[in-house]
Design goal:
345 residues; alpha/beta; Dihydrodipicolinate Reductase, domain 2; 10 helices; Rossmann fold; binds nicotinamide-adenine-dinucleotide; 2 domains; 11 strands
């Protein structure tokens, strides 16, 4: 099928797990943890990283294989990544505000022309994985993808797929777009949807439910300082509508706990009634690592977008959005999987 030429904006933890995944599954005896060993004819090993952008002093000018293990990344190391021959270039910094906990030590280099770099690298897809709350940078990278003729995947909570004017631009330039905010493999939002769908399918009535997270790592600081309200809106909207009646429902992030590292603790609460109107409660906790939780889904989203691009899809690619992103139209996870597999099958 050939290769998939991918550029990354943001060489953070999610990027680390995604790059590592393409090497891990090249050697793994069994594809444990991978939803689709082959998708639309593409294997994870067909993904080639051809360009990278970051703004951190610890990452810019380094080979991508080194940058993904540089400070403050703390995603689990699952494989040795060989030198990739892709030097991380300086990106634009329109959102950087010094003096906050989440501020990044800016590299001294001048920002490059992102669209020109994407063209030079013959990029198929640009993935936006910059720090949460970098709304202006996320829009600049989207415009660069359009200028360079690339597909664009927005893994961040910034509103890109949710921005009608940007979607129109991708449609009129005949380029595919997917986003926003990656829906993790065994993440709190997917599990919360699953619990609610399951209880409804078993005839239980749900009276109220909430889901809250605490996490470590740079992205949890960004969430606390910049995107807490946005995340709460996106996550609550993502779990709403999976049961055909309304009930009090909250889903969001709450706080940063530094010693959790890349870890995340997710708490789930459900109160409801079943046979005879008898009440029940459910109180669950999931402990996971953040970056690998996104890696598997992102390897699928990349391959799904390449198939969409090969098929000439333009604008929002609904089956990729519904399968892999929180901010998407979706009636059930099962239907979202079905639509994704129809596109890629
Ligand atoms: N499971 C997941 O990891 C997951 C799930 C859903 C959404 N996301 C989103 O993906 C994004 C990345 O998550 P992460 O955990 O890797 O975060 P991270 O903080 O580990 O990495 C972000 C990287 O982006 C870089 N960056 C910041 N501004 C930039 C700019 N203007 N240009 C280029 N690089 C820039 C930072 O220096 C850092 O290297 C976040 O927006 C997060 O909300 C991640």
């Amino acid at each position: 099928m050939g290769e998939i030429r991918v550029a990354v904006a943001g060489a953070g933890n999610l990027c680390s797990s995604t790059v590592q995944g393409t090497h891990f599954y090249a050697k793994a005896k069994e594809p444990l943890g991978l939803l689709h060993p082959t998708l639309g004819g593409y294997k994870p090993t067909d993904i080639k990283f051809v360009a990278a952008f970051d703004i951190s002093e610890a990452k810019v000018d380094k080979d991508l294989s080194e940058a993904i293990f540089a400070k403050s990344n703390n995603a689990p190391k699952i494989v040795v990544v060989p030198k990739l021959g892709v030097v991380v270039k300086m990106g634009p910094t329109p959102d950087l505000i010094e003096g906050t906990l989440s501020s990044i030590k800016r590299a001294k280099a001048e920002a490059v022309d992102v669209a020109a770099e994407l063209k030079k690298a013959k990029t198929d897809i640009l993935i936006n994985m910059v720090s949460g709350g970098s709304d202006k940078a996320s829009t600049l990278y989207a415009q660069a993808a359009i200028d360079a003729g690339c597909a664009y995947i927005n893994a961040t909570p910034s509103s890109i797929a949710g921005d009608a004017a940007l979607v129109k631009k991708f449609t009129s330039t005949k380029l595919p777009l997917a986003g926003d905010d990656l829906l993790d493999q065994v993440g709190a939002t997917a599990i919360h949807i699953g619990i609610l769908e399951f209880l409804h399918s078993r005839g239980a009535h749900i009276d109220e439910s909430y889901q809250l997270d605490v996490g470590g790592g740079a992205e949890s600081i960004s969430t606390l300082e910049k995107t807490k309200d946005t995340k709460r809106r996106i996550k609550t909207a993502a779990v709403t509508g999976h049961v055909p009646y309304k009930f009090p429902l909250v889903s969001g992030s709450t706080d940063f706990v530094d010693f959790l590292g890349n870890g995340r603790d997710s708490f789930f609460w459900v109160k409801g009634r079943y046979f005879g109107g008898v009440p029940f409660t459910m109180d669950l906790k999931l402990s996971s690592e953040d970056a690998p939780n996104g890696g598997s889904i992102l390897l699928d989203a990349i391959r799904g977008m390449k198939v969409a691009k090969d098929k000439g899809e333009k604008g929002l690619v609904a089956p990729v959005c519904g399968y892999a992103f929180k901010r998407a139209e979706r009636t059930s996870l099962a239907k979202a999987y079905e639509a994704f597999r129809e596109l890629t099958g």
